[in-house]
Amino acid sequence: MAMPSLCQAAFAVFRQIEPIIVLEQLGSTLFDTALQMVVRDRTANITEPGHSSEESQQTAITNFYMTYNLIIKLTPIIPALVLASLSDRGWRKAPIVVPLSGYLLSRLGLLLVVIFGLPLKLMFAAAVVFGLSGGFSAYWPGVMTLASLGSTAADRSKVMMRVELVYGVTGVVGSLVSGHLFLLYSSSLGNGTVLLSVSTLLNLLCLIFAVALLQVKRVNSEDPEESYHLLSHASRYTRLAGCFTGINMVNMVLLFAAAFLYDFAVGGAIEVLGSFVLKSPLSWTATQVGYGNAAGCGIFVTSFLGVIMFRKCVGDETMILIGMLSFAVGIYVMSFVTTTSLFYVARLLNLFALIPMPTIRALVSQQVPASRCGIALTCLQMTLKVAGIVYIPAFTKIYQNSLTWFPGLVFMISSVITVISMIPIRYATQKAAERTIPGALRLIFVLCVCVFPPASSVAGRLRGNST
Fold it and tell me: Where does the chain cross the membrane (predicted)?
């Protein structure tokens, strides 16, 4: 009797969204480390006239990632919108199953590049295939939509952060082992084959789970208001007549603006961070790269704990400001990192940096009825795509041009933009903050402006130092 009950419990767990998140994230963390090390190895002998070998390698690495990431940002836009539309029409698994197919093909592509010694540029074609499947732009809103459907509006922020927690813990585990797996050999095929084989198998298993086992929870059509109450609560009991009727568009615009600026700052810094740790004085190995990626994934865990702690005394809006301040301080310290230990100090200061985005997603999802939740979250993801299209070339070129005199300049710029991104959140919730946020916490915004000077003064000091 115990065995059938245990099997039923296991089957029920496998039908949830969490196993999909675990398998996909494990495969992705292994793939990310493998791609980073393969690119480093393939660009080791590149030289350019008038530049050192390290500068030439850094330029080649950043140019590869700039092109690769731009493809990933641009190609999923239309497919993601189509998949979101299908999701809102009842095909809830479409934004998950289709992107997972792209994940599998892209992992298989890098495995073939390593095994057969194919040109690294073939990964651009793999990126196109990945993008046409909808990519992360379709997959993550699809995951968040399924998670939202099983929760009330009041608990939605906690539910989304729990999803982020599972994502982060899995990322820590995958990253910790990825560097060690990369160094394992498979016959005479070289480094990375074992790592990429495991990554491909995990993504295949994830796709099978999504197609055969994943269960979609039904929305309670009798109480649609629960899913779209407004941030200001002014029209909480007003039933929507259409997609945008009754929505406080000012708050929506401010939330989207804050998400755009914050993603611009975070994404721009992370865009070059992978290349930054491969150059001297850090010069990380594959194992150290895995540990560094694990530190980044660990921020998911600390951010989740931060939400549990802060939500007892402050509102969602204040949690967003705290998270933004955490990233601004940590990435500012990253500007001056010269040792591995100082790198981890900077990452430690980022411990709440992932609170803002899932909280903003939760607030956005509360603006619309459940039937439009998928398209709303996808529109937010598309806004972040636009940010990526801008910050990828911008931060890459700034990093390349400042590589010889101040490679940490991009991190300082990211810190300043993060502070600016706090302004829309502050204005969107000013009245609510005056009613609910203690005076000491209301000073956070003012203090961060005092700690970090405006962009103009930072630029002026940099010009002065350079002369």
Answer: 65-84, 96-116, 122-144, 165-186, 192-216, 237-262, 282-308, 320-338, 406-428, 440-459
Q: Is the dihedral of CA 158, 232, 434, 443 positive or negative?
A: positive
Among 29-43, 366-380, 409-423, where is mean pLDDT lowest?
366-380
- Measured between alpha carbons, how far is residue 58 from residues 134, 315, 403, 455 in Å? 30, 43, 9, 26
Nearest to 198 by CA among 20, 31, 32: 31
Q: Extract the tokens encoding 73.
A: 């940002």
**Residues in CB range of 150: below 8 A, 6 or more apart:** 159, 217
Instruction: Answer yes or no: are the C-beta atoms of 99 and 422 closer than 8 Å.
Output: no
Long-range contacts of 400-407 (CB under 8 A, 24+ apart): 400/58, 400/59, 400/62, 403/55, 403/58, 403/59, 404/55, 405/466, 406/462, 407/276, 407/279
The architecture in CATH of the region 15-213+225-443 reads Up-down Bundle (1.20)
Longest dimension (CA), the chain: 80
- Bridge partners (DSSP) of residue 191 are 185
Q: Which residues contact 435 (CB under 8 A, 6 or more apart)?
A: none
pLDDT tens per residue across span 63-105: 999 999 999 989 988 998 899 888 888 888 999 999 999 999 9
Judge contact between 344 and 296, C-beta under 8 A.
no
- For residue 222, count other CB atoms closer than 10 A to its CB: 6
Between 150 and 449, the more confident residue is 150
Token pair for residue 14?
């496998």
Report which residue type is found at 466: S
Omega before 281 cis (within 30°)? yes
How far apart CA 138 and CA 43 sit, in angstroms, is: 32
- Of 8, 6, 12, 28, which is closest to residue 213 (Cα–Cα)? 12
Q: Can you give 105-145 as a three-state secondary structure string?
A: HHHHHHHHHHHHCCCCCHHHHHHHHHHHCCHHHHHHHHHHH
What would the DSSP string read from start to end of 53-96? HHHHHHHHHHHHHHHHHHHHHHTTHHHHHHHHHHHHTT-TTHHH
